Write a sequence for this structure.
């Protein structure tokens, strides 16, 4: 199945599925704790997803982890809003993220949560990325992940700094994969290991990690050829390879 990026959005499609990551529903509580006025944005995110599903003519929603925000436990807002949020979609598949503890009791019949090791659908493997993927990813052509919430940090000559969300496309390091999953393993693909795509955060309030500034926070990045990873802005602009930044 072809992977298609949606221009201007931190989302892609694979076959008949719309794929996003890091919704962090309920994150507004963090802003209110800090003394800021921040109403719930759950309905805003839902409408964005509904619009993208319609435009992309997809029926299924795949969330690569961190559908909810609060850990540990859940908030009253999450308990109230998440079941209604998910029930608005025909089918939702979730790869469990590190913020998704205690999410399962909130899931309506339309939603299914897979383990943190991810799941294979066709020739695409979906995972959050806070934990090592299950060996099933070796059967895929493409692995799609979240968790990193990748950004790039830019500072101009006057010292002003800003960040932009980026897509990450990378190959995997065979030596590192074999070290983790075993040498001389039959990977099921004559043309090599799956390619890795890391999704930007769908929720703009969730922030992110500047890949050109900070240490990396995902096991996936330990098996990726990061120096040669290609970074793209949401509008499709190719920024170059991470190792040259």
């Amino acid at each position: 199945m072809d992977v298609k990026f949606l221009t201007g959005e931190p989302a892609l499609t694979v076959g008949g599925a719309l794929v996003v990551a890091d919704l962090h529903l309920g994150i507004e509580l963090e802003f209110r704790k800090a003394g800021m006025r921040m109403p719930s944005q759950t309905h805003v995110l839902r409408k964005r997803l509904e619009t993208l599903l319609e435009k992309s003519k997809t029926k299924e929603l795949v969330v690569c982890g961190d559908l909810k925000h609060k850990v540990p436990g859940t908030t009253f807002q999450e308990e109230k809003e998440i079941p209604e949020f998910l029930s608005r979609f025909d089918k939702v598949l979730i790869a469990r993220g590190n913020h998704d503890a205690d999410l399962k009791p909130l899931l309506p019949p339309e939603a299914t949560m897979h383990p943190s090791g991810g799941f294979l659908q066709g020739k695409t493997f979906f995972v959050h990325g806070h934990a090592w993927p299950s060996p099933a990813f070796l059967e895929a052509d493409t692995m799609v992940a979240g968790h990193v919430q990748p950004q790039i940090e830019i500072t101009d000559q006057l010292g002003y700094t800003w960040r932009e969300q980026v897509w990450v496309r990378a190959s995997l390091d065979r030596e590192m994969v074999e070290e983790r999953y075993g040498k001389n393993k039959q990977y099921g693909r004559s043309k090599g290991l799956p390619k890795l795509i890391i999704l930007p955060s769908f929720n703009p309030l969730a922030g992110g990690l500047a890949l050109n500034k900070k240490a990396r926070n995902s096991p996936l990045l330990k098996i990726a050829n990061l120096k040669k990873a290609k970074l793209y802005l949401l509008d499709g602009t190719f920024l170059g390879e991470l190792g040259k930044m």
About this structure: The mean pLDDT is 93. The domain at 3-244 is CATH 3.60.21 (Purple Acid Phosphatase; chain A, domain 2). The chain has five helices and 15 strands.
